[in-house]
Amino acid sequence: MNTENTDVLTPILVIPARMASTRLPGKPLADIGGVPMIVHVMQRALAANLGPVVIACAETEVAEAVRAAGGVAIMTDPNLPSGTDRIRIAVETLDPEGKMYNCVVNVQGDLPTLDPLAISAVVGVLEDVPTCDIATLVVATHDPREISDPNVVKAVLSLETEDRGRALYFTRARAPAGDGPVYHHIGLYAYRRAALDRFCALRPSPLEKRERLEQLRALEDNMRIDAKIVTHAPEGVDTPEDLARARRIILGETS
Prior knowledge:
The protein has helices at 37-47, 60-68, 83-94, 116-128, 144-148, 193-201, 206-211, 215-220, 240-254, and strands spanning 11-17, 31-32, 35-36, 53-57, 72-75, 103-107, 134-141, 154-161, 164-171, 182-192, 225-230. The protein is of the alpha/beta class. The longest helix is centred in the C-terminal third of the chain and has 15 residues, at 240-254. The termini are far apart.
């Protein structure tokens, strides 16, 4: 159980970014209305107005694009095993003694349509649940295609309020069985600083490797993850088709 003082959270928002992507190479610099996608994500994170926003980069070209847009970029080792490790290194670089930030928000760099209120919501879970180590978001779905799609991660929750529950499991399979909503997991996380350090010190767990879901490492080590239920999922960008859809959404917003 987390015993860290949670009276006042001091968040830092970190966006991990690397150019390697099997389905969409160079994804962080993908053009959306003349602006790189990573800059769109940065702007959404800044609009949440929760704390400083930093991009944890693996390549200099991403750092240069971020800095050209007035952002803060921290270079990290491109060989780090995950985006979570990348954000931890970036935070350690900025705050090595852990005195400035006790909450780290991992904002995925492929969510250019992310609602800034969603970032506030995930931090709010840590504020509301003192024993929670990691917070995340889900959206209810009844769509049979989403439910059967292994690329859509499902969260199995034990509901504690109408719009929040403790995560019991995450899976690519349909779960739980029976009637009722299935919760589509949104890859946005808020960590207590100590929980992030603990998580990154753990070895990948058996279920994590089997399901290819990093968050199972935390559950297998008895860390607590709570999820807020929100009404809409942001459009992630993993393919050229996703990118075209994001362009339509964003350019429609600004027209």
